[in-house]
Amino acid sequence: MSKIVIYEVGKTDDKYLVEGIDKYLKRLKHYVKLEIQTIKESRQKLATLKTQEESSQIFSKISNNDYVILLDEHGKELSSVEFAAFIEDMNLNNPNNLLFIIGGAYGHSDHLRQRANMILSFSKMTFSHQMIRLFLVEQIYRAFTIIKNEKYHNE
Q1: Using one digit for the tens of pLDDT, what is the confidence trace for 35-47?
Q2: The whole model's pTM is what?
Q3: For burial by CB atoms within 10 Å, which of 10, 60, 88, 103 has the most?
């Protein structure tokens, strides 16, 4: 894969989450080009309009060749080892960008869902989209340590 891009709607406000994200971003520099792009949260009042506006902003940044993964509580669940195998496969066989998209409070539009190559869930539980950002970068880091057979993941 060329690089990993995480699109997130709205800023991460909580200091402890920002510190955690930064910690894993520094560690990931040894493995992959990764960037986080923040999409401005919509000011629309209606959830459907809010989701459509935010999804449109994201959609405009996606190229036809990008591999798009939406994070959503109703998506497919993977273990850390399965996720690492997926990342390794993408790294070896996909020359394009790997995009992870974390929606806002109301998720993703149907249009963005149709474009997605995969919908991934971290749990059947609901987490704040700010927390998922930390979980995602940690799991990407964990995946690379599993791939490289480095000490971090215990099984």
Answers
A1: 999 999 999 999 9
A2: 0.94
A3: 103
